[in-house]
Amino acid sequence: MRAIAVSRYPVCLDGLLRLLSEIAEPGQVVGASGLEDAVAQARDTPVDLMILDLANDEELPDLKRVVDAIAPAPLVLFAMLSPAQGQMAYETGVRGCLPKTVARELSVAALKLVLAGGHYFSDVGEFVGGARSASSLKGRLSGRQLEVLRLIELGQTNKEIAKALGISVATVKLHVQAILNVTGARNRTEAALRARGQIR
């Protein structure tokens, strides 16, 4: 897998390169200080993923051009977007947005989800195809299901969750299935990504 990180800020670019190195082969992650350079690099050697540190709103109109230039590779933003900006990015073909406050482990999981064909837009998931409303999960999941979901977010297996909560693995599986049904997620990782920020 070949990936490009784009940021005009050297410290941020370094952080994005480190993040991408967790999912790409050594030597397959490159950096660019601007969109024109990144698109040129993608034209020379096709990429599988581009992550862009969206520095300001002025770059939003350029997203469609970038999406088209690197297709079929996904474009993921590293930014704090309003719901309206997230909607605009989604409609232009952007496949995800990682908030600058998200933990590294969740960022890696979100990038893997995007590479597998999914979308990840934290806290603006109501416009993502197939996603349920972003209303609070507290009213839709039981207390035990919320506990299971928190442990899923920490990456624990069904067996580890069962041990931590003092319940059987079969019961954990039932709770996981209920969580998937309520969140509309296809798997545990997607459920955790969709729920992030809603249950604390």
Structure description:
The protein is α/β, with parallel strands linked by helices and 200 residues long. It has two domains: 3-127, Rossmann fold, CATH 3.40.50; 143-195, Winged helix-like DNA-binding domain superfamily/Winged helix DNA-binding domain (Arc Repressor Mutant, subunit A), CATH 1.10.10.10. The protein contains nine helices and six strands. α3 (63-70) links the parallel β3 (49-53) and β4 (75-78). It is elongated, with a radius of gyration of 18 Å.
Key features of this structure:
single chain, 200 residues, alpha/beta, Rossmann fold, Arc Repressor Mutant, subunit A, 2 domains, 6-stranded parallel beta sheet, 9 helices, 6 strands, 11% strand, elongated
How would you concisely characterize the structure shown here?
This protein has about 200 residues and is α/β, with parallel strands linked by helices. The protein has helices at about 10-20, 35-45, 65-70, 85-90, 105-115, 145-155, 160-165, 170-185, 190-195; strands at about 5, 30, 50-55, 75-80, 95-100, 120.
Q: What is the radius of gyration computed over CA atoms, rounded to a whole number of angstroms?
A: 18 Å
Termini gap: 35 Å
Give the tally of structural domains: 2
Question: How would you state the average pLDDT, rounded?
Answer: 84
What do we call the CATH homologous superfamily of the largest domain? Answer: Response regulator
Strands ordered across the widest β-sheet = 2-1-3-4-5-6
Stretches with pLDDT under 50, minimum 5 residues = 124-135
- Put simply, the count of helices is 9
Shape: elongated
How would you sum up the major sheet? Answer: 6 strands, parallel
Helix content: 40-55%
Beta-strand share of residues: 5-15%
What is the CATH architecture annotation of the largest domain?
A: 3-Layer(aba) Sandwich
CATH topology of the largest domain: Rossmann fold
Order of H and E elements? EHEHEHEHEHEHHHH
State the name of the first-level CATH class of the largest domain: Alpha Beta
**Structural class of the secondary elements?**
alpha/beta
Number of strand segments: 6
